[in-house]
Amino acid sequence: MPHHLSPEPCSLPPPAARHYHSALSIWLSVDPMADKYPSTSPYTYCANNPVRLVDADGREIGIPPFGIGIGIGIGIGTVIDGLIYKQKAKCSTMTISGNLQAVRHYYWGGGHKVKLDSKYTTLLMNTEKFKKMHQKIINGKITTSGYFAIDMTKEKDAFFIGRTGVAFNISTSEDGKINTVAYTLFTYQNQPDGFSDPNFIIENIMPQLADGKGSNLELGGTPYDFIPQKIKIEYPNPKYHEVQ
Predict the structure, then answer these.
(1) pLDDT average, residue stretch 51-78
(2) Are 98 and 157 in contact (CB under 8 A)?
(3) In degrees, to the nearest 5, what angle opens at C-alpha 9 toward C-alphas 4 and 12?
(4) Domain boundaries, the chain
(5) CA-CA distance, 18 to 169, in Å (whole number)?
(6) Nearest to 144 by CA among 122, 165, 170
(7) Interatomic CA distance for residues 58 and 79, integer angstroms
């Protein structure tokens, strides 16, 4: 789906604007000044050289002042990409699938809640902590609702999730034969967990400063919530079978 830079999310661009396809990294309409660059495709951005050149409005390529071309080129490219991402985040719920994307959403997602890729549900449920707690539940050692925390910081590509929580509720069928445990993953004390400041170094050195989704250590971005994942698992009621 093509995306464009416009004042309001999901709205049509003004007539003079050029449509931009973020997946292909090309403009979908011709550069109005294309006749100035007969050897270059009118659909490219900065003649395919965004590090050294700039094109702030999608119409004409420019060369930054000597000595700062690389910095400005990278900066403008990052801003354009960020603005496109920001509009996408306003129009639809983003799915986070890695640490870099998590930080990107922190700076450009506007605080909108996100889904976590399904691989993180699998990853969490395969941690030793989760498996031990689940085993206690199906063995009848835990029979009430509860909550436990899991540290995901050392799991593959899941550092951004950090220390997250799992809430659970156990119910029994009318005939008493079957129990169902309903898990709510990625929670924090019965509230949605989320991503806040990426200043992990300071928080590790001074854990007393570590915050939840607050503002005391934010580095210019906006904290956001994860959409909790709900999983239900049925198992034989240990107490019913003990009686039998």
Answers:
(1) 52
(2) yes
(3) 55
(4) 20-92, 116-243
(5) 52
(6) 170
(7) 14
Strands (E), the chain: 20-21, 26-27, 95-96, 115-116, 146-151, 163-172, 178-188, 191-192, 194-195, 224-225, 229-236
Residue type, 111: G
pLDDT digits (tens, 9 = 90+) for 43-60: 666 666 655 566 666 666
d(CA 37, CA 30) in angstroms, rounded, equals 12
The whole-angstrom separation of Cα 169 and Cα 230 is: 11
Question: What mean pLDDT do residues 149-169 have?
Answer: 90
Residue 177 or 241, more confident: 177
Q: How far apart are CA 190 and CA 107, in angstroms?
A: 26
CA distance 227 to 115: 5
Rounded Cα–Cα distance for residues 40 and 98 (Å): 36
